[in-house]
Design a protein that fits this description.
heterodimer, A: 116 residues, mainly beta, 7-stranded mixed β-sheet, 4-stranded antiparallel β-sheet, 0% helix, B: 108 residues, 5-stranded antiparallel β-sheet
Chain lengths: 116, 108
Amino acid sequence: DAGVIQSPRHEVTEMGQEVTLRCKPISGHDYLFWYRQTMMRGLELLIYFNNNVPIDDSGMPEDRFSAKMPNASFSTLKIQPSEPRDSAVYFCASSQVRDSQYNEQFFGPGTRLTVL
Amino acid sequence: KNEVEQSPQNLTAQEGEFITINCSYSVGISALHWLQQHPGGGIVSLFMLSSGKKKHGRLIATINIQEKHSSLHITASHPRDSAVYICAVQTSGSRLTFGEGTQLTVNP
C-alpha cells in the first residue's frame, strides 16, 4: 500500500481565498484524522471520522473550516476564507480497529499551507 | 497546565549513549502513543501502549498507568535517531492529545 496520500504537498495562497486539502487514507482503514501543526500550538486534532462519519469535530477552529468524507477512500479539509493565522502543516492520518482494539495511526506527509 | 507534559524539551547526546524521554499526563487514557517526527517533517508511529512495556529494536517504551507516566528509551543511540519525539495520549474514543515534543540531537 502507498500509505496515506495527501495533496497538495505545498500550498501558497492569499488571504480570503478558498483552500482545499485532500487525503486518501490507507485502504481498509476505518478511521481518518485531520491534524494541524504550528510552532506555537504544536500538533492539534481538528476532526476525525469513523466509517466516513464525523465523530469529533471539537478541534475545528471556527466556521471557516469544514471537512468531509464522501467515501472510504477520500476526505477533504476546506478553509474558506483563509487567513494568515491558518498557515500551518496539515496532516491526515488513518487507522483501523481490529478485534475491538484501536491501533496505531499512520500519518500522511502533510500539506504545508502558507496564507499571505 | 497542559494535559501532556514531556521532558526534556531538548536533549543532546553523544552517539552510543542511553537516552530517556519522559511523558506525564493528567487525564484518564485508553492508550499512549509515541511518535517520531523526522527533520523533513514526516511523522511515524513508534509505539502504542496501554500497559507494561514494548520493545522494537533499540527502542523501548514503558508506561505506569497508576503514576500517569511513560518513558521512551533509546539504547546505543545513533545520529539517525535525531528527531522530535512526541508523546500523545488517547482519551475519549480515538482522540489524541499531544505533548510539545522533545528535540533529540545525537552527535557522532
